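Deviations from the work plan: none for this task. Representative record:
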Amino acid sequence: MSVLRFTATDLIKAPSGREAQRRRADRIMRGIMLATAAIAVVPLIGLITYILINGLPFLTSQLIVNSPLDKEPGISNAIIGSLQLTIASIIVAAPIGIAGGVYLNEFASPRVSSAGELLIDVMLGTPSIIAGLFAFLVVVPALGFSGYAAIVALSVLMIPVVMRTTQEVIRLVPAGVREASLALGIPVWKTTIFVTCRTAASGLLTGVVLAISRGLGETAPLLLTAKGTNDTEILNFGSTMNAMPIVIYRYSSSPDSLQIGQAWATALVLLVIALLLNVLVRFRTVNSRVA
Amino acid sequence: MSITKESRFGFGGGIRVDALFRVLFGSAVVVAGILLAGVVLSMVVSSLPVWNIQTPLSFVFGDRWAGEVTQPDGSVVGNYGALPVIWGTVVSALIAIMIAAPVGILAAVYLVEFAPRRLAAPLTFFVELMAAIPSVVIGLWAAGDLSARLRDSVEWWASSTLGRIFPWLAEDPEAPAAQSVFRAGMVLAIMIIPMVVAISREVIRSVPQSLREGFIGMGATRWETIRHVVLPAARIGLTGAVLLALGRAVGETIAVTMVIGNAEGIPSSLFLPGQTIASKIASNYGEASSPTETGALAALGICLFAVTFMLSLAIRLLVRRAARGAGQAS
Amino acid sequence: MRNLTKITASLLMGLVLVAGLAGTASASAPTIDTGAKGKITGSGATFPWNQYTKWFEYYRNYVNPSAFGTSSTTKLVLDYTGGGSSTGISSFKGSERMKETQMFSGTDSVLTSTNRSDINTALGTADDYMVIPATAGPVAVAYRYDGLLQKVSATSTRTVAATLRLNGAVLCEIYSGTIKRWNDQKIKDLNPLITNLTSATIILNGRSDGSGTTFIFASYLAKSATAAQKNCGYESGFTSNSSTAFSATAGTFKPVNTAPGTYFGAMRTANGARAIIGGDGNAGVAANIAGTNRSIGYVELSFAVATGLKTAALETKTKFTSGANRGKFNYVLPSATSAAAALTAAVSTEDPINPSTSYVQPVFAAGTGSYPIVGYSWLMVYKTWTSADGLASKGQVQGLIAFLNWALTTGQSKLYVSDGVVGYAALPTAARNAAVLQLKTITYDGTVLWP
């Protein structure tokens, strides 16, 4: 991308003085910018290497299959707990998020719409510990430290993600598609569901996957709600539950070297899942853009 | 489902169903609003017991979290001071943003303007991948690996040179701390750089090419174009990116808790352990047995929420100004 | 002759058997209804956590695998969530009490009168719970000082890795900020053989949560540091560190489990000393010490060993009365043996069963082999259980009794070992028996579960 520039001096002699100074500044800044891009990537490499090296030796079938109470303890109840909590939370958060995002885009007046945008902004910016504190103050006194409290906390964090993505994706649906459908006499509600949403379906799914990815990795709200336990229970949200982030947090400060190793291994599992979900989202986004 | 059938029955039934539909979907927004209101209300209501025993001013400016003290005359005086945690939150976030803003924006500029096409996409992918990693995993790595590295390199160098001049960079050379506010700031920086990069990239990319071409046509170098045209044009969007990242840095809990140590009080140096609002809530919630102790934590939550709320408000105002001012989609 | 020997032998055997039977509280074991399932969860002190975890594992896998399992939907599951003694006490009277998520609490702090009245209010009936010792252990003064060397003897020049010696008075001054550096004269006086103490600042560690381990440590400081009583008397309800807030009379003290960062905060600022670094639970403090050179703190022994920390040898209460060291104090490292010696020697005016507010942990016990910081760790268990909605079922309470009975008898020889070092001390026999007898007072819907 060379700069085409003609001056008499240029054609005659090499740049000097101010000109050279500016060119040098340009080169230096390019170097600095390349360095910053490299800086942004280095920690990632360090992190993945560290977790791999420390976690891989402990990534055994014992870890995944056994409960913490077995002779060779593992974290099976944390894996099951994480799955249950995330799925339950997304079942709550996705309908609310999608419905809300659709409403704000399709049916709301401009004033309501901008108020809704602010609402989503504030919810998105709410720290996860505050969501956990909310559930701790409201749900825990009533239902105890439970999966229900955790679901409430996670939903507060997931709903705005789904809503924001839904909003942006629905906005991209061309007006012509809607108008054509309405012109055919199809009622508004059917248009919205079967035409607009279906067109934006892959984007809506992206929002859900993003929310799942957020919910899977959150620790602070789970510490204050589900609390963690050695017990293995299926579909008993009324009791305390274990989850992978809790295991990582707790085991990392344990005096037992096996538990510390299992913390790393669990982190490795969580890391792989998070990366896979991220790749999935990008793949979908790329696809939808191409399509 | 033929068209004629629809037009015969569509209108009457359609309007009623439409109305129901709107109410149903609208209620989703209401639910979200109720949740948010619940978050705020629950913290305010829970914190009431604390305001019976001390004033909000003494809460915000008190320099020690000393609990309640029963006076000789039987009355109870609250001694919950939040200044050390507020200090820790502000300082660690500042350190993070002072590093992440320039690095993130410059990296975004590189990725958009200079990176060879084949390198740009994978490099962007890797930079933004960090944002997908759960914070507890980052915290684990930071506590186990990064912390020691930072202590033995940056902190050691800074305290032995600058530390002689500035006491807030001092550190006992024989005994560097196991955790520090500085390291918490660094971890936060690493976590928010991808956010800054992602948003900055979009903003910079949306600056019209014509602006750039015009400047280059006048004989400017690429860097000069960026400095004098692109960045100013993207100013509002970049500010928004930085504010968003700042909001994240202020609210981050787990990664910070694992790296900042749990020291009471305002440390005399950046290289000593401290506390943030988020880390204190996460560490003390199990302790909170009485209504006043829980209330004190809720009061901390109010402080944190107030900060993130104001940041979100600022971002939304910026976005609105950008849309109105430039007349283009932000 | 052989017949006589045989008869004597069998007589002796019989005597031993009878003595053995008299030693154990009951020959019958508590029964558990078949099909009992659910959680048996407790919370509280982190001091005994390693021991309880080991007991749960062992009991579930080797002693009673038929009734205890890994999932509370099919069998009984033992769980302990820690959180510190304060959490344990407040949960005990909290809204979850007697549910399967709060069936017992662990504490190393003696209950204050406020605690007791609150519990009585919550439970309805006065003293409707028992406080039984489950285990005991030494609190180690752990430190990290890389490269500390001491001469082999006063006349030699050969050096070996040093073991730090300390006593209560010096520790009190360290914590209150009077002693700030490692090469302070008072530390040097106790450690004449150590060659390379530097002027580095002492980095102090303590708990950040309300802790029974702090309670035990504070009891030791108060009892042993008579000269510095003013600062380490640990009088509860203090408003400042002025002398009027403390009882200056040696021996009168009321330790509290307040985090030392809070307790000593004002004193240390006044003395220009750095803030105490708080750790979460014994594990957190151990990790902090391990991560910082020139730092010192107090943790339960098993945590110190598991984290690879060095422990200080503490001055005994009694001096040698004979031998080469006559007239000098002994310096004892924490271990199961020295803790057991302390437990035996501790002159207690009352049993550690249902201790009163004036109970003193067996710190600073007499004897040249007694480690001076030893404490009991108690379990608080409800006495009257009912089948009200949401509360623990009969099978769960039976499971709790069965486990506790095992832990107080056979379990006392299954002590937690880390890196070859036993971290806890077995309870004295009298205490064990009394505790087991207490278990027999537990009723469910009016019926005694283990008669």
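The mean pLDDT of chain A is 86.
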